[in-house]
Amino acid sequence: MQPDNLTVDEVAKFLRVSRQTVYTMIRAGTIPHFKVGNKVRIKRADLDAMTNTQTQLTKGADDE
To answer: What is the reported pTM?
Structure first.
């Protein structure tokens, strides 16, 4: 079973980017997040929705 909330490290591995890039995306508002104490967490559903939206936008650009 996969966890519902992901750490920055887990998101970085999933997206194949650095931890710093994930933090940059969080600050830019690209990735919705919340904090548990001083730890940043990202809901898996939010990450899935974000990546699905990006995939749809990319596919739409290729169709032209």
So the answer is: 0.77
